[in-house]
Design brief:
The chain is α/β, with parallel strands linked by helices and 173 residues long. The protein is built from seven helices and five strands. Strands 3-2-1-4-5 form a five-stranded parallel beta sheet, with helices on both faces. The longest helix is centred in the middle third of the chain and has 17 residues, at 104-120. The protein starts with a helix and ends with a helix. It binds 4'-phosphopantetheine. 4'-phosphopantetheine binds next to strand 1 and helix 5.
């Protein structure tokens, strides 16, 4: 690690970026944001704008829902990004990328991304938190599938997100 970054870490002003699709935010994401906000001086929740996946919600809608859900978190900012994550993190002055791991199945994908990001910008560290055990089965993809098939998603996503999901799958805008 470069001496400058070691100093930044020691001075204790660490900004972390928590990137993802957040299509939409679940309580699993919120658990990670809550814990990340306690660990770092500033946490930037960064929504990927151009994703290969076809999102249910636009980047603006995802940002809006996240902002509503984290509005009481004083050191959390919600933003969206495109292009390389590490370049975005560097522009934000971040030295940490935060990601959650739910199960072994997440590990391979996360390892690949962390190593590629390290190769691109070795001065930025990826920090992993284990997902809260209550949320280890939870994903945005499954939540969307369950709601589309009429299942109960209460307790899995914040109420405003649940309402937006129901509206969207019933054909509303
Ligand atoms: O919630 P997701 O979909 O698992 O998040 C994936 C994300 C946004 C972290 C990843 O796709 C990403 O970082 N995309 C930005 C493009 C990039 O930097 N790619 C090279 C890094 S491996």
């Amino acid at each position: 690690m470069k001496a400058g970054n070691q100093l930044a870490l020691k001075l204790g002003k660490v900004t972390a970026v928590y990137p993802g699709s957040f299509d939409p935010i679940t309580y699993g994401h919120l658990d990670l944001i809550t814990r990340g906000a306690m660990l770092f001086d500033k946490l930037v929740v960064a929504v990927l704008r151009n994703t290969a996946k076809q999102p249910l919600f636009t980047a603006e809608e995802r940002v809006e829902m996240l902002r509503e859900v984290v509005r009481d978190y004083l050191n959390v900012e919600v933003d969206c990004f495109e292009g390389l994550l590490v370049d975005y993190a560097a522009r934000k002055g971040a030295t940490v990328l935060l990601r959650g791991i739910r199960a072994i199945s997440d590990y391979e994908y996360e390892l690949q991304m962390a190593l590629m990001n390290r190769r691109l910008r070795p001065e930025i560290e990826t920090v992993f938190l284990m997902a809260g055990e209550a949320y280890s089965f939870l994903s945005s993809r499954l939540v969307k599938e369950v709601v589309a098939l009429g299942g109960d998603i209460s307790g899995l996503v914040p109420p405003i997100v649940e309402a937006r999901l129901r509206e969207r799958v019933s054909g509303g805008s």
